[in-house]
Specification:
By secondary structure, the protein is an alpha/beta fold. The chain has 14 helices and 9 strands. The chain has one domain: Aldolase class I (TIM Barrel), CATH 3.20.20.70. β6, α9 and β7 form a beta-alpha-beta unit. It binds S-adenosylmethionine and FE2/S2 (inorganic) cluster.
């Protein structure tokens, strides 16, 4: 089938076969990418208009017990200087963010044993008590189902846990043997069962990734239908085993953003910091490819450089207000508007027979 016909089919049915996804990725041209972006933008505008949602990202700890081969805060990186924000500082960051117009806070961190449920539960309750009109998103990695349940009961609304890759073989290339693909997938299913709005996602151009792997990622998104999907280019970090591996590209990341928008039209799709890191206009390009979320940094400036997942990460020197102001201007320039709302996923009725 022709590339245009495949795009049209995806736009109408929100589903392709694994081979068809692979074929689209394999044969991408600038023209096809433009057409995919046009269709994605049209689809997003029907659901979200030209509103862009923001999430205030608070990086609560860079201690991590895991050793993912790609990640700058992996436990084997002995030159990483570790920090942990105490609950008062997290609350202060949220307070600051609220004043700036944020209505979603994302608490993200490495898998830090300090942040037990007993420490997180009162913190979540306090954030929700002070800001009842806000959503709280957690991104703290893999935990037991009981823990996810306790955090949900304490007020957490959403959970981001990128699946990283939908191929078990590729997963093993990116992670140490003690980490398992099956457990990550189980976590995503548990989170959904409990009632969280769930975010999955993956890196584009991670070492060993094939077009077949990416097609599997798209099929996974089609079947799992995550409420959010975080995708960004892999960017090497000099203190990891992948220090010399090439980074992902803007072109392929944006093309995949467009395809994901067509696969699941109401998905909340961030234009990521990693995309802004490899291209000064990366986040604008992500929005113009179909994304509808940006995540300015709300962490205290003093610790930002330490949350170094990859080399060259942007926004490590700016105050939260500067970051927000900067993104507001950037979005306005391309005809979009940052709005102060929680920004939940809108409901959507598929008009096709597939689902
Ligand atoms: N520990 C939690 C987890 O594993 O889900 C949240 C923090 S983790 C650092 C957040 C995300 O950063 C990961 O899901 C991964 O996709 C991304 N990341 C890590 N290293 C990266 C790199 N070198 N380039 C691009 N993204 C990276
Ligand atoms: Fe952080 Fe531009 S978004 S400085």
């Amino acid at each position: 089938m022709q590339m245009e016909a495949l795009l049209k089919k995806l736009d109408e049915r929100h589903s392709l076969t694994l081979d068809e996804y692979e074929y689209l990725i394999e044969n991408r041209t600038d023209e096809i990418a433009r057409e995919a972006a046009e269709r994605a933008v049209r689809t997003r505008k029907e659901i979200y208009g030209s509103s862009i949602f923001t999430r205030g990202l608070i990086e609560i700890s860079n201690y991590c017990k895991n050793d993912c081969l790609y990640c700058g805060i992996r436990r084997s990186n002995k030159s990483c200087s570790r920090y942990r924000l105490p609950p008062e500082e997290i609350l202060a960051s949220a307070e600051n963010g609220y004043g700036l117009g944020f209505r979603t806070f994302v608490l993200q961190g490495g898998e830090d044993a300090y942040y037990t449920d007993d420490r997180l539960v009162p913190l979540l309750k306090e954030i929700k008590a002070r800001h009842p009109d806000c959503a709280v998103t957690l991104s703290l990695g893999e935990r037991e189902r009981e823990s996810y349940q306790r955090l949900f009961d304490a007020g957490a609304d959403r959970y981001l846990l990128r699946h990283e890759t939908a191929s078990p073989g590729h997963y093993r290339m990116l992670h140490p043997p003690e980490m398992s693909f099956e457990h990550r997938m189980k976590c995503l299913r548990d989170l959904r069962d409990i009632g969280y709005a769930v975010g999955a996602g993956f890196m584009v151009g991670s070492p060993g990734q094939t077009n077949r792997n990416l097609a599997m990622d798209l099929k996974f998104i089609e079947e799992f239908r995550p409420d959010m999907c975080g995708i960004g280019p892999f960017v090497p970090h000099h203190e990891t085993p992948f220090a010399d591996k090439p980074q992902g590209t803007v072109g392929l990341t944006c093309f995949l953003l467009s395809l994901i928008r067509l696969i699941y039209p109401p998905v909340l799709l961030p234009s990521t910091t990693a995309l802004g890191t490899i291209d000064p206009l990366g986040r604008e390009k992500g929005i113009l490819a179909g994304a509808n979320v940006v995540m300015p940094n709300l962490s205290p400036v003093g610790v930002r450089k330490q949350y170094e997942l990859y080399d060259g990460k942007i926004c490590t020197g700016e105050e939260a207000a500067e970051c927000r102001g900067c993104l507001e201007k950037r979005m306005e320039k391309i005809g979009y508007k940052i709005v102060s709302e929680r920004g939940d996923r809108k409901s959507w009725q598929s008009t096709t027979q597939n689902h």
